[in-house]
């Protein structure tokens, strides 16, 4: 009897946990749902324990084949103050020879390679090797629309985007406020802008795009991107768009001792009474902001878990390549005097990195003060946790606009945290607003919306749901 052909898919992830985690989740789906052989090529920064933990999670039990390519040395190609986007693009460009040799030598011959946004220069290699090439956008469809339309905006818009007096129009989509554009669009003279435009063109060279969203969440944006849609027409775009999300992690089964302590503490707190504060894998705030945040949490008189990092001045993504090296004494220097002892009954500080999905899945969590990275946003929604939107870098200002104003899942400060310090009174007010049952604060619409969208998300990924069907269509195409 003939053995059935084994379909092999290769995923390529650039450095950064916000890139690696969704790639690994997608990899798992192909293995568990379609029995594909999956190889993950992870270009890693090799600096974080968290990264190792995520990589281990695909190896135990052994679900995927993993090829870890250490980030190539790029010091000769970038300036010291080059932005994260520039660095990521250069790292992935320099990693091309290593990726090419894997793709050409690995067996069985891959049917498809799925790359993340920063790895789009792998698509021409796939094409040369006669392998289908897809891009997986670990973000949402509105961001994808802005990205793809940016080369056109580059022709149409004069001057800096942030200086425009009118919102930036995308055919068929909600316009984007000038202050909400993606980081690489903030300064058109910076190298990251040129790199970003190349990424946009790179996506259009692919055989299709996977997006970590779902039909019911972003129907309008998805429609404009598809054949016949206003944006697709404007760009003469013919590639299929697969909404396959939300792809999020399950709480980890393996925990370390600090997580066990944390979970034991959470177990003792009333249901939905704790606000979780985290700025993702790379976010940092100024020392003044850190103090105000501490005062705000204290003033709110609510329980909290706060993932703390040493502050930085003027850079909001300072921990992107370097998570995990400070000590509590170092961080403590930046907190208001006596804060730790005064809040010891109601608050927990976690250094640098926490097992976020385990925390968000705990019944005592009632709100998430988040930098609005898309991964964190989806983890919040799928756990039914309302957000306080605190955007810092990358596409997070757009995410915050989407979740707060567009979807009604979040409250947000009146000022943009990267422009002005958010004051303690406002922080306390927002915390009290999202936490259920605070005296004097009425039941919030935000909490109800999160519940609605949690249901819709679960439905989308369950059997016959829209994202399940989209992924099956893609899997069929790949399997030929
Ligand atoms: N994360 C975590 N612990 C932390 C910070 C982040 O587990 O202390 C995880 C989080 O659960 C998410 C990812 O790291 O899956 C961050 O991705 P996201 O898109 O939210 O933001 P980014 O870090 O890429 O800005």
Automatic annotation (TrEMBL):
Signal peptide (UniProt feature, chain positions): none
UniProtKB keywords: Glycosyltransferase, Transferase
Main enzyme class: transferase
Single Gene Ontology MF annotation: UDP-glycosyltransferase activity
E.C. no: 2.4.1.-
Similarity comment: Belongs to the UDP-glycosyltransferase family.
Name of protein: Glycosyltransferase
Taxonomic lineage: Eukaryota, Viridiplantae, Streptophyta, Embryophyta, Tracheophyta
């Amino acid at each position: 009897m003939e053995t059935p052909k084994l379909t092999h898919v290769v995923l390529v992830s650039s450095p950064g946990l916000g890139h690696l985690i969704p790639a690994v989740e997608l990899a798992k789906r192909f293995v568990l749902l379609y029995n594909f052989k999956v190889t993950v090529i992870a270009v890693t920064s090799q600096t974080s324990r968290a990264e190792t933990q995520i990589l281990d999670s695909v190896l135990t039990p052994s679900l995927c084949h993993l090829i870890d390519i250490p980030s190539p040395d790029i010091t000769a190609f970038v300036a010291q103050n080059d932005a994260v986007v520039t660095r990521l693009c250069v790292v992935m460009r320099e990693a091309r020879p290593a990726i090419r040799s894997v793709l050409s030598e690995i067996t069985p011959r891959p049917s498809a390679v799925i790359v993340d946004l920063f790895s789009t220069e792998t698509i021409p290699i796939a094409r040369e090797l006669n392998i289908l090439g897809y891009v997986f956008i670990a973000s949402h469809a509105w961001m994808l629309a802005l990205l793809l339309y940016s080369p056109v905006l580059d022709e149409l818009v004069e001057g800096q985007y942030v200086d425009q007096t009118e919102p930036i129009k995308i055919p068929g989509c909600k316009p984007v406020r000038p202050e909400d554009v993606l980081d690489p669009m903030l300064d058109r003279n910076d190298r990251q802008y040129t790199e970003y435009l190349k990424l946009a063109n790179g996506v259009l060279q692919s055989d299709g795009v996977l997006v970590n969203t779902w039909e019911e969440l972003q129907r309008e944006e998805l429609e404009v991107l598809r054949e016949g849609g206003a944006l697709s027409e404007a760009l003469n775009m013919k590639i299929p768009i697969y909404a396959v999300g939300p792809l999020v992690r399950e709480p980890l089964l393996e925990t370390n001792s600090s997580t066990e302590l944390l979970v034991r503490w959470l177990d003792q707190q009333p249901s939905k009474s704790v606000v979780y504060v985290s700025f993702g894998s790379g976010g940092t705030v100024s020392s003044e902001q850190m103090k105000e945040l501490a005062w705000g949490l204290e003033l709110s008189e609510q329980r909290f878990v706060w993932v703390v990092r040493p502050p930085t001045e003027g850079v909001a993504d300072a921990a992107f390549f370097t998570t995990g090296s400070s000590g509590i004494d170092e961080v403590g220097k930046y907190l208001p005097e006596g804060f730790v002892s005064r809040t010891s009954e109601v608050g927990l500080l976690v250094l640098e990195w926490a097992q976020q999905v385990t925390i968000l899945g705990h019944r005592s969590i009632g709100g998430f003060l988040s930098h609005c990275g898309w991964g964190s946003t989806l983890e919040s929604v799928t756990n039914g946790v309302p957000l306080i939107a605190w955007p810092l870098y990358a596409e997070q200002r757009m995410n915050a606009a989407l979740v707060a104003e567009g979807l009604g899942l979040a409250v947000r400060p009146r000022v943009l945290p990267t422009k002005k310090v958010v004051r303690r009174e406002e922080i306390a007010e927002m915390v009290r607003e999202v936490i259920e049952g605070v005296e004097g604060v009425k039941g919030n619409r935000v909490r109800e919306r999160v519940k609605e969208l949690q249901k819709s998300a679960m439905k989308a990924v369950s059997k016959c749901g829209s994202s399940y069907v989209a992924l099956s269509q893609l899997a069929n195409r790949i399997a030929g």
